[in-house]
Specification:
Layout lengths: L15 H21 L2 H28 L10 H18 L6 H8 L2 H5 L5 H31 L10 H25 L1 H4 L3 H15 L10 H10 L7 H8 L4 H35 L3
Helix pairs in contact: 1-6, 2-3, 2-6, 3-6, 3-11, 4-7, 6-7, 7-11, 7-12, 11-12
Length: about 290
C-alpha cells in the first residue's frame, strides 16, 4: 500500500517448524506494536502504579515495624520494599485483570473469524499476550522500580542467579496468567456472557496471587495449600519472592519449577477447552 507501513504475515514454505516460529514471532511483534499506540494510557497507568506503590510500601513497612523481630513472614524491610515495587511494576506485565477480548468476540460471534484463520486462537492470543507483556516490561515495569529504588531502601540481588531466574519466572508468570485468563474468557462459549466469571477472577486473582500482601503472611499451611492447589501464587508471589531472595537457591528453583508445571497444565487445559468449544459450535451450526 502506498504511504502505509503495512505488512502481511506469511508462513515460510521452507519448513513447518521455521514457518511456525516465523508466524509466532510476527504475532508477538504485532502484540507489542498494538500497545505502543496507547501512550496516554501507559503514562496514566504507570503514575497510578507509583501512587499505590507508596501506599502499599508504607503499610507493609508499618507492619514490619510493629512485628517482633521486624520480619513479618520472614521478610526483612528491604525485601518488603523490593516485593512491593517490583509487584507494582509487574502488575501490568502479567496483566491480572482487564482482558475480556476473547469473551467479547464469543459474545458477538466474531470468534468464528478466528477459527477460520490458519493459526489456532490459543496460539494467536498467547503470542499477542507475550508481545503485550514485553511492552509492559519496557514501559510499565521500569519506572515504578526506579522510583522505589530512589525513595526506599530496596534490596539489591546478592546471588548471581537471582536476576536470570527472576526473568525466567516473569516469563512463566505471564504464561500462567494468560492460561487463567483464557480459561475464564472461554466460559463464554457456554454462558454467552462471561462477566460473572471475569468478576470472580478479578476479585480473587489479586488476593490469592500475592498482589495486595505477601502470601507468606498467612498461616504456613494456608500458603502452601494455595501454592500447590492453585496456579495463582505463580503469577506474582513466586517472581517477587525470587527477586526479594526470600528463600534459598534450591527453594527458589523449586518454586519456578512449580510455576512451569502450572503453565503447562493451564495451556493443555486451555487447548482441550478450546477443542470442546469448537465442537460445540459445529454441533449448534455456529
Amino acid at each position: 500500500m502506498v504511504g502505509k507501513d503495512a505488512s502481511v504475515l506469511t508462513i515460510s514454505t521452507v519448513g513447518p517448524l521455521r514457518g511456525s516460529v516465523t508466524t509466532f514471532g510476527a504475532l508477538v511483534g504485532s502484540g507489542f506494536r498494538r500497545y505502543t499506540t496507547y501512550r496516554q494510557a501507559t503514562i496514566a497507568g504507570t503514575f497510578t502504579n507509583v501512587v499505590f506503590g507508596y501506599l502499599r510500601c508504607y503499610v507493609l513497612l508499618a507492619v514490619a515495624a510493629s512485628t517482633v523481630g521486624g520480619r513479618p513472614g520472614g521478610y526483612a524491610p528491604d525485601q518488603l520494599v523490593t516485593y512491593v515495587w517490583l509487584g507494582q511494576g509487574l502488575l501490568s506485565v502479567v496483566m491480572l485483570w482487564g482482558w475480556a477480548e476473547l469473551a467479547e468476540r464469543i459474545r458477538t460471534g466474531d470468534v468464528a473469524a478466528d477459527l477460520l484463520r490458519p493459526v489456532a486462537p490459543l496460539t494467536a492470543y498467547l503470542a499477542a499476550d507475550l508481545g503485550r507483556a514485553a511492552h509492559g516490561m519496557l514501559t510499565r515495569f521500569i519506572p515504578p522500580v526506579v522510583v522505589g529504588a530512589l525513595c526506599f531502601p530496596m534490596r539489591m540481588p546478592t546471588r548471581w542467579q537471582t536476576v536470570p531466574l527472576f526473568l525466567v519466572s516473569v516469563l512463566i508468570a505471564v504464561v500462567v496468567s494468560f492460561g487463567c485468563r483464557y480459561l475464564v474468557n472461554a466460559t463464554a462459549y457456554w454462558l454467552q456472557d462471561a462477566r460473572g466469571p471475569i468478576l470472580l477472577w478479578t476479585l480473587g486473582a489479586g488476593v490469592l496471587g500475592g498482589l495486595y500482601f505477601p502470601l507468606r503472611l498467612l498461616p504456613e499451611s494456608v500458603a502452601v495449600t494455595l501454592w500447590l492447589a492453585t496456579p495463582l501464587p505463580s503469577i506474582l508471589q513466586t517472581p517477587l519472592d525470587v527477586a526479594a531472595e526470600r528463600d534459598g537457591p534450591a527453594l527458589q528453583l523449586g518454586l519456578v519449577a512449580l510455576q512451569l508445571f502450572w503453565a503447562v497444565v493451564l495451556l493443555v487445559l486451555a487447548a482441550v477447552v478450546q477443542k470442546r468449544a469448537e465442537r460445540r459450535l459445529v454441533v449448534q451450526g455456529g
